Amino acid sequence: MAHIHELGTPAALIDTQRMQRNIERMQKRMHSLGVGFRPHVKTTKCLPVARAQLAAGAQGITVSTLKEAEQFFAAGMDDILYAVGMVAGKLDQALALRQRGCDLKIITDNAAAAQEIGRFGQRHGMVFEVWIEIDTDSHRSGIQPEEEALLEVARTLQDTGMRVGGVIAHAGSSYDHDSHAALLAIAQQERDGAVRAAQRLREAGFACPVVSIGSTPTALTAQQLQGVTEVRAGVYVFFDLVMHNIGVCSTDDIALSVLTTVIGHQQEKGWAIVDAGWMAMSRDRGTQKQKHDFGFGQACTEDGTVLPGYILSGANQEHGILSRIGEPDHGIAQRLPVGTRLRILPNHACATGAQHPQYQAVLPDGSTEAWPRFYGW
Amino acid sequence: MAHIHELGTPAALIDTQRMQRNIERMQKRMHSLGVGFRPHVKTTKCLPVARAQLAAGAQGITVSTLKEAEQFFAAGMDDILYAVGMVAGKLDQALALRQRGCDLKIITDNAAAAQEIGRFGQRHGMVFEVWIEIDTDSHRSGIQPEEEALLEVARTLQDTGMRVGGVIAHAGSSYDHDSHAALLAIAQQERDGAVRAAQRLREAGFACPVVSIGSTPTALTAQQLQGVTEVRAGVYVFFDLVMHNIGVCSTDDIALSVLTTVIGHQQEKGWAIVDAGWMAMSRDRGTQKQKHDFGFGQACTEDGTVLPGYILSGANQEHGILSRIGEPDHGIAQRLPVGTRLRILPNHACATGAQHPQYQAVLPDGSTEAWPRFYGW
């Protein structure tokens, strides 16, 4: 329980009040839209955060690796969706989870993988619950709602005795927009595509009880989700500068920051050198092509007040270059002397968190609690 | 000792033969230039790799965090340079290392930090050995060789009873070039600036025994290093696509790769979807502004043969998009079916390694050994 002033730097801080506010905002929204909510825990890989999400009303979790599934299942969470296409090489791990009692759902978007899942399931006497991945915005994987492959995959699963549990879509292209109108259109398209795919499956005789969609921008924008049963989102719990630029949060909502110390200056260039480089921030430059480029992050005072115009303009492994946008601040060594402690708001909370073995959860009185996170596969 | 074909994906592979060849190439070069070599272990944070570097003739190690110093010291390495500017908040940790017998050298480039070090040393009866950081190419931190501040920092250290052990320079701007002539000029400038700074210190009465310089590109290019006592370099041990573009290695020298599995396709776009996203590759886009943009990495077969033109063109957290540069490969699902295992060469070995809790060292017979790495601060 060190006080924030006593923490070594760099360190990943969670503003627990902001986090709780973000969790409640999303949960309330899902409630009013009449859908379940299954947070994506890949953002934090952190038990206390997932517990806070479930306590607020989330139903189950989404994971990006089977290691996450194992870790969260070991902590007592058993309704888990593994939202990356299953392949043969990972079926042993999935089987072990199912055999230990984990209600693990897996996904696929192609007949080859569906066949592998089916054969493996038959061989081991396991009926896997499989959700079919739907592509509603051409951004990555999935089957388009009207494609013939949709029914082919469902039939392959059924023929091998597997359970077609639902459809899953993720409108990842929502990250490329920053107007409410565009987000609304993508949210509608995500909902419509998933609901249509489920309809086709049902018309062909598959039960398809679940219609799962989501991304943070669409979840916070959608106006109606008729036919959808659950929504998934991850980064909303912390938010970040990319989400700020997309327009779904303000900088005051960003719950994750990196605590850093000024270690030197290049006064004539207007640079302060800090001990948060890309190892602490990640190499994510997600704001580079957005309307406001924050470099590697937005500088704040140690208590979290934004320093307008001061960003982490460069990053080496353990060195960050902090400077003012536009006119160099030749008084930076006086303004931010060696030893000054600052917080840096990240471009991308998922990527920044991944650089740290633990978060420091900052409580309202400034005391901190170490919240471990895990990584790897 | 799993065989490479049995490893789960994604996984970070080290080709141990290439690694050993890279180590020997650098060590031989340093020997012929008549200088000591102090590898930067921040690239790997991995004990077996550092041991191989020392076994080949390296004298001491360079670290980027005090945690690295602690871990490598615990493993019996005691000649350690911490090559990031020291600040007050980290002196307790440095003191503890010195008191346990670690021959830790620290650095500074400003009088404020020098004074903190001196006062702290006096208070605890510890004579810290401090090297002064020199800026030879305006890329980050350090004092320029002719600046008055150089002598001011040395005097501050001397007046408080600390030891001015040497000067240290790092020509980080070498990463911005790709011609032998340009690298030669930067290497010369790095050497000249460091030697000149040492000369000024000696003329002012400071012993300054060490003149330490280095970066992988300059270390592999410099033609003469008269007056230099040691060279530092990190990424040479694995190399990567950035170094390939700079011109100091070929793709056949790159010892680090990420093993991945094809999990799906978008045939009409010519995409294969793989299970190596940015979590496995890092968000480093270091080749973006270089002469050849490799996206998030160069695809190879599982045995390491380069697939010319096939790169990881996109990356989400656990999804990579693999495609052909130029004309889409509409036969990609036949060429690389679901389940195909590939290796991806990384843009930046330091950043990619940091995403993995361990490397899998691949021996010539295809058997593998887990080599743990650590992270955090």
Overview of the molecule:
The structure is a homodimer of 377-residue chains. With 377 residues, chain A is α/β, with parallel strands linked by helices. The first copy, chain A, folds into two domains: 18-237, Alanine racemase (TIM Barrel); 251-372, Lyase, Ornithine Decarboxylase, Chain A, domain 1. Chain A is built from twelve helices and 17 strands. Chain A has helices at 16-33, 47-55, 66-74, 91-99, 111-124, 149-159, 180-203, 216-219, 241-246, 278-281, 332-335, 349-353, and strands spanning 11-15, 36-37, 61-63, 79-82, 103-108, 129-134, 163-169, 210-213, 230-231, 256-266, 271-274, 298-301, 306-315, 320-324, 341-345, 358-362, 368-372. The first copy, chain A, has an eight-stranded parallel sheet with strand order 2-9-8-7-6-5-4-3. In chain A, strands 10-11-14-13-12-15 form a six-stranded antiparallel beta barrel. In chain A, a hairpin with a 4-residue loop joins β13 (306-315) and β14. In chain A, α5 runs parallel beside α6 (149-159). Chain A is elongated and about 70 Å long. Chain A starts with 10 loop residues before the first strand and ends in a 5-residue tail after the last strand. The model of chain A has no long low-confidence stretch (mean pLDDT 98). The interface between A and B is large, with 62 and 62 residues.
